């Protein structure tokens, strides 16, 4: 019986508990099992993670075993390289209804990964034809779309409750207005559903202003109800995905804020970063400490919403709906619609260098600390949407890239954002 992730998250949501999850992967089966066991032993709701190594992500299944045999470490677990029996033994007596495990992989061409995922008895993963192609590869978008369609059909056909989390809400990690993140997440959800996967989660990455983030998550939930109402879905928040604070105090404050944001915005799951994100791959102990911090910070009732958040919600909702409807009206085949939308600049990711992205849009951080459009390119946004027309210098881009890290590292006590 599968479907552990959906049922576990839903049960926790009904009891008002946030599920927290690390981003964790180790090359050796023994180290990976030990890490999962440490997480599974925690006394609050957690989901385990198998993060794929960078070699398997690009289809190299030989080098990981050579490096492990030489005593070297990898930056993730080479699922496709290890024999099926090795991974099933790794998961034995850990993975189950009380401890779901999700595979995180980062590959634009995931069919080989999905096949092994199913072979080892897992059914939950993440990514998407856009969100794992444009940021991470040079693969043509049309090729990624075709393989993701086949992979979805495989997962939907070979598992009872195959689950995919769209990574669309985390495009490039930072400096993308929320409406575009939300639109891509919902469009990928529609793509998954069209190809047989009906158990979904939709990601959103913590941005630069709490009020804007809360408004964006409200908009995301409304759009998921509209476009994905006949599927099972939940929202997963990511602790800030851009440059992380370099000081332990700054990183701790940011993790705490992400946990409170997840609680206040009604997110069901939180992907947690650690205090060491800025300088190394986190250890198991650092992951466990971050999970404890996030779980403790998310306890208690949510803070009430505000007028400013609702204003952000309305603006983001209008922009995202315009983007989604424009794409869906291009073609009944959602994959073909996505390819055409990028070819025409109707979807266009700021600062993304992929050949299939027009790169005519830019993003700015305004005087409130909110993410807004600098140049909208050919995006079909409502008239008067955003604040556009300002030129962007390299110094300004550098400052924006460091905006969150610098603010948290410099603050002794963070002032509450005006909402």
TrEMBL record:
Biological processes annotated in GO: anaerobic L-glutamate catabolic process
Swiss-Prot/TrEMBL keywords: Cobalamin, Cobalt, Isomerase
Database matches in Gene3D superfamilies: Methylmalonyl-CoA mutase (3.20.20.240)
Pfam families (alphabetical): Met_asp_mut_E
InterPro entries named among the record's database cross-references: Cbl-dep_enz_cat, Glu_mut_E
Signal peptide stretch: none
SUPFAM superfamilies, sorted: Cobalamin (vitamin B12)-dependent enzymes
Domain of life: Bacteria
GO molecular function, one term: cobalamin binding
Protein name listed in UniProt: Methylaspartate mutase
